Amino acid sequence: MNDITNFDxxxxxxxxxxxxxxxxxxxxxxxxxxxxxxxxxxxxHGKGAYVWDLDGNEYLDCSMGLTSVSIGHGYEPVAxxxxxxxxxxxxxxxxxxxxxxxAQTFLETVQSGDMVKFAKxxxxxxxxxxxxxxAFTGRTRVAIAREHPFFSYDDWFIVTTPCSRGIPAxxxxxxxxxxxxxxxxxxxxxxDPDHDIACLIMEPVKFDPPVDDFLQQxxxxxxxxxxxxxxxxxxxxxxxxxxGAQHVFGVTPDLSTxxxxxxxxxxxxxxxxxxxxxxxxxxxxxxEDKLFLISTTHGAExxxxxxxxxxxxxFGQHDMIVSNxxxxxxxxxxxxxxxSVHGLDRALQLSGHPxxxxxxCRNAAGEPDDAFRTLMxxxxxxxxxxxxxxxxxxxxxxRPELDTIAAAFDGSCSVYARAIAATSTKGLLVGxxxxxxxxKTI
Length: 442
Prior knowledge:
37% of the residues lie in helices and 14% in strands. The longest helix has 24 residues, at 399-422. The protein has helices at residues 8-17, 64-67, 76-88, 97-110, 122-137, 155-158, 183-189, 214-224, 245-249, 275-278, 302-318, 320-341, 370-382, 399-422, and strands at 43-47, 50-53, 58-61, 115-119, 141-145, 175-178, 197-202, 228-232, 255-258, 269-273, 348-353, 356-361, 385-386, 390-391. The protein is globular. The chain folds into two domains: 8-74 and 319-422, Alpha-Beta Complex (Aspartate Aminotransferase, domain 1); 91-300, Type I PLP-dependent aspartate aminotransferase-like (Major domain) (Aspartate Aminotransferase, domain 2). A hairpin with a 2-residue loop joins strand 1 (43-47) and strand 2. By secondary structure, it is α/β, with parallel strands linked by helices. Helix 12 (320-341) packs parallel to helix 14 (399-422).
């Protein structure tokens, strides 16, 4: 791909959008402060693994809508299923017939839990899981893995980040942290018999795999201490496997949350779990106190559920999990070889599984550095690869796309090596470095 230098319409868009939308986007990780100055301000459309910006520039997409687009942009079988559902009506006074079909298919395919509740975003289902756990145990506190960056925009999670403004102080002690792969830190949480912990939530795996049967040990500790064990498969589901990373690692949680890739970018998330817990949100136990679980007008819109069904079918038809892992392993190997050729083994490290891996960028002193990270993003984008630090191979990333990513990475590493040699990004990085989403000040 040719170097991209035309951003006239993007600049106009950026100048106007912040007057209309707080933050300039509806997801903070899509904001201007998360990218270098040469990033496209907005995407007009996408097809397969490619997207186009306001100025007509074409990019190969590396992270696919925050990893929610699990097959490809505009994948026709999913898009057609959504269109067909829309023409039959999207919302009704009673449950749509597709709700039963989607629930049966999802539970049979994913095989995680006895019951399912659908919603439109991940925060809704993770917060619902917390509410269920509190009702089931009669406790209030939530244990959260410190290394996992995002579970919900609701107070119970955001209070654990530097962005706690607007959250009542009375909620601050309701969430406690533990370390992933640090079983001692979990044991300490439960050492006091009055720990008041209702549930423990974490992703089954991020970029570092569980060691010493960590997941199984946590599950056993939760069981022995009457704590609800929640696995967030928002990212890992439909990447590690259609049945999630929990199946790969052989562990069974009490509740699981799902989203992002389960509907190829369409809005569909799910909470699954054991019937004895999930039924607390039902209406069949007459005489019991009612738990108001999830009740959203658009939670089971027919279009999202149709996208879910078509996505599940496509993954099964084309054995996409195996294919994605194979191509991801190939890409990771190519990138590691490029890093070695440029002598950047100390500065650039790839971590994670072939289905989703990340690049850590360090400065000449070997420390993680936002300026150097932004420089790598800048150089990849200038070569036509929309990159934010993640490599997510989907069905749309076939061999030509992998070669394009590798070529862009090779050219970017040449510039990065110059910055390492100079011990600075000065003269190479245009504009300011990208910032962390969770930070105390703007």
